[in-house]
Amino acid sequence: TTMDEHRLFKFPVFRLPKSATVRAMGMYLSGALYAIGFWVLLDAALYSKRVNASLVHVTFVDWVPAICSSLGMLIINSIEKSALLNNDASFMQPSSTTTWQARVVLFIGFSLLATGIAGSFIVLILKFLIKGYNTFPTLGMGVANVVSNASIMLSCIVLWVVQNFEDDDYNYSLAL
Amino acid sequence: MTVKPITKIIFLSVLLSIGILLVVLSCALFHNYHPLYVIAVFLVAPIPNAIFSNLNANYQSDFLSDSAPNGNPFKDFGEFVTGIFVFSGLVLPIVFWHVQLIVFWSMIMSLSGGFIVYASIILFSMFFHMSDDDEGFDF
Fold it and tell me: For the whole prediction, is pTM greater than 0.90?
């Protein structure tokens, strides 16, 4: 059959899972990573409210980087990926405009994501480290912010890579 | 070896009841009913997937002629949301424990209970979805 011609490994035992399965798994993984990001931050907020004995508390400022990251992730992954792949040498004029728009919107999305990561480090440094809160139960609330934003970014990366899997069996490309 | 459907159903219902028993016990033994949220989250978890994979069918029949290189956004979104819910259910007891809403053994019991509840839901869909999905999945 056609399946056997497209085999990647010599032994028929090894074969990559179907791209549809990989795609679904990637989606679940991405959701799980996003949930880690959300719960780590919520955990820090609840910890600050209920258990925290120190003077520093989680306020709205601590949520801002995660909100930036989430908005960036939403923007990046809402873009139709095929709009980006059109080159300017394309024969249709409107499509190059779409490509340009897509690149601008994508740039905004990546900027928001980077702002989220940078912002989480800013919160960690300015709110915790500079003011001398560098022992662990207290510092944990700042570290949680970085972990949260990092996992949201990782979730975004997984989502991006998985969306670019080609739909046909076995041979998928990681374009862009 | 084939297993009769009735055996599967009995096995799954026993598994589900063990899971729920563990979660309820983790509440009742410590007089603290916070871990009950775990069951709610796990019961909600498969719903987005179910809804969005039904949208999936409509979407594909509309745009089958078009070359859609990037798969189906609705299905992807449903899987994403389901992933969020499943993981939320898994980490909820840990968060409750960390913020000292529940004690350590209550966390262990509700964690394993929630895991068993979700495993039974997953197994149910694996046992009874596979046969009628096969032809659509394998083209």
Answer: no
